[in-house]
Amino acid sequence: MKYDFSGWATRNDLKCGDGRIIRKDAFKDNDGQIVPLVWNHQHNDPLNVLGHALLENRNEGVYAYCSFNDTDNGQEAKKIVQHGDIMSLSIYANKLTQNGADVIHGAIREVSLVLAGANPGAFIDAVLEHKDTEGEAMIYSCGEAPTLAHSEDSEEEGEEEMGNDEEMSLDEVRDIYEGLDDRQKAAVNRLLGEALEDMDYDDDDEDDEDDEYDEDEDENMKHNVFDNDTRQNDYLSHADMQAIFKNAQRTGSLKEAILDYTDGYGVELMHSTMSGDTENDHAPGYGPTFGIQNIDYLFPDYKNLENVPTFIQRNMDWVSVVMNGVHHTPFSRIKSRFANITAEEARALGYLKGKMKKEEVFTLLKRTTDPQTIYKKQKMDRDDIIDITDFDVVAWIRKEMRMMLDEEIARAILIGDGRLTSSDDHISADHIRPIASDVDLFTIKKHLAANATTKQMINEIIRSRKDYKGSGNPIFFTTEDVLTDMLLLEDDIGHTLYKTEAELATKLRVSKIVTVEVMENQQINGEDLIGVIVNLSDYTVGADKGGQINTFDDFDIDYNQQKYLMETRISGALIKPYSAIVVTKAAASSSEEESSGN
Fold first, then answer.
1. pLDDT computed for residue 546 by the predictor
2. Cβ atoms within 10 Å of 227's Cβ, excluding its own
3. Among residues 325, 358, 361, 366, which one has the least CA distance to residue 344?
4. How many CB atoms lie within 10 A of CB 476?
5. What is the value of pTM for the model shown?
6. What pLDDT is stored for residue 266 in this prediction?
7. 272: pLDDT strictly greater than 90
8. Phi, psi of 16, deg, nearest 5
9. Could you state, in order of their start, the residue ranges of all structural domains in the chain?
10. In sequence order, what are the beta bridge partners of 584?
11. Residue 438, pLDDT above cutoff 60
């Protein structure tokens, strides 16, 4: 196979510059295909095509064998690569299938030489010089890094060298090392730095020239490859490291080789305090014990089950019921006018001849409601927004803001703000009028005794419907505790009275039952709130043009902060008299609570 250089077009399980992570076999369909070799992903000029690349799908990623063409640009690029000026590769792929940030399928269209690649594992690892005489040849073994063999060696000798477990090339070590993450590299650096310093190259059987060569090789391994010259107290002997690298050559995983080697001899993770020969056999029961401190540095990093953090929140199902159920108007200043013709004076009268006819008398009523602004505000440092690459943090924040704004509006409509009226953050009950505490003209008050049982509660709710003047069949908003007590009711022989919520709703003469978490432990005028019965079409929410929910963002140049605002300016009120029922129960004393039952 004739080619000018080879390297990793892309590597698996590494986070790329755009936040994507390419997973194993994502580009397996490209195995054996030839694609263009391009300069820096420039597709607008045929002169940017420098040659082609033969792709090979491997367990670690996609490997590319690249050949330059005879164009001027191709030959210039060849010189740049041979000189070592460009060492990074990059791919252009489309038809991507993603699971969050994970790329699980796609099609590679070209491989590019680039100044800096997006994938940290995509690099050139072998460059060949084709000469008139066969000075060098590339021997490639599937699953391992390429190594160079000189032509004066026979083919059989070359194969023997590749199969020799006692030797491992620097390229092979580098390939294994680059597959580790930062924590794993730090641990290996520490171990190898100590092991290399413990190596003794002063062998009496070797001449001075060989000693000098070995010392140079030791220095390169420590400083150039692993950049580690810090001596540590923990160590593995030279023989240990040889055994580990031999195993790594076989398995292709340095991490697994270290774990297999230590676990095979039942070694504890501890610091060796024994002195003596470290070159001994480490069979059980022989010689000093040894171990690897902080071996967890070699373990894989923890992975998120979900790309976006999950909100810990209250049950929000009821919010959509309220927000979608109310009546909306395109104006915010709401006026309601009524003529009360229920009084005795408004009745029609009988007439007796000779008597004077009387005029009827009825009362006019009026109520107005003004709007108030409700908002959510957030800000973030721009540096943090840029650094968070796993997910769209701005979209995540906006989702939280809208969710909490809707909940606050629904709470104000149903039971009120709950904050002190003296608080600057209080939503005024004169602007968004709570159904649960509205005046008697609009909300019917039903009071239960502190010792009322659940059966009595159901009966009183049914009886209160005679005063209801609202639209259609209302909804019963209550708490989980109240609903549970009602569903657990049994007859005298232990049969459940209401098998489903629908059966209970029919009994209560409501369309459905909706539980509201924020209603728990709420009181209205000193009494425990049991529930609110209302048809939300009788409640009007008004907003002028521009007063609907809007989102704004601004950038603070002085503090390098991005600010976000979500707000609305609305009013809300019941517009039909006697259109809601609120059920409360007198607060029980401690003794009554202990003796209460159904």
1. 83
2. 10
3. 361
4. 25
5. 0.51
6. 34
7. no
8. -80, 170
9. 5-130, 170-298, 372-595
10. 447, 529
11. yes
Spatial distance between the Cα atoms of 108 and 111, rounded to a whole number of angstroms: 8
Q: Which residues contact 134 (CB under 8 A, 6 or more apart)?
A: 151
Question: Which CATH number describes the domain made up of 5-130?
Answer: 3.20.16.10
Tell me how crowded residue 230 is: count the other CB atoms within 10 A of its CB.
9
* Mean pLDDT of the chain, nearest integer: 77
Residue 578 neighbours by CB under 8 Å, 6+ apart: 441, 442, 444, 467, 468, 469, 470
How much of the chain, in percent, has pLDDT values that exceed 90?
A: 45
Burial of 70 from C-beta contacts in 10 A (0-12 / 13-18 / 19+): exposed
Distance (Å) of CA 432 to CA 33, 351, 573: 67, 48, 6
Ranges 135-144, 179-188, 222-231, most confident:
179-188
Cα(24)–Cα(98) distance, integer angstroms: 13
- Give dist(CA 583, CA 85) in Å, integer: 80
Answer whether residue 412 shows pLDDT above 60: yes
Buried b (16+ CB within 10 A) or exposed e, 74-113: beebbeebeeeebbbbbbebeeeeeeebebebbebbbbbb
Residues 420, 182: Cα–Cα separation, whole Å: 53
**Which of the four pLDDT bands, split at 50, 70 and 90, describes residue 187?**
low
Per residue, the 3-state secondary structure of 479-513, as one string, reads: CHHHHHHHHCCECCCCCECCCCHHHHHHHHCCCCE
Residue 38 pLDDT greater than 70, yes or no: yes
CB under 8 Å to 6, separation ≥6 — which residues?
63, 64, 65, 66, 124, 125, 126, 138, 146
Which amino acid, one-letter code, is at 38?
V
* Residue where the block lists tokens 């420039």: 42
Distance CA 226, CA 218 (A): 11
Residue 527: name the closest of 428, 450, 412, 442 by CA.
450
Regarding beta strands 21-22 and 102-114, do their DSSP bridges make them parallel or antiparallel, or are they unpaired?
parallel
- Report the C-alpha gap between 438 and 573 in whole angstroms: 9
Pairing of strands 334-340, 61-68: unpaired
Phi, psi for 523 (deg, rounded to 5): -125, 145
Three-state SS annotation for 11-52: ECCCECCCCCEECCCCCHHHCCCEEEEEECCCCCCHHHEEEE
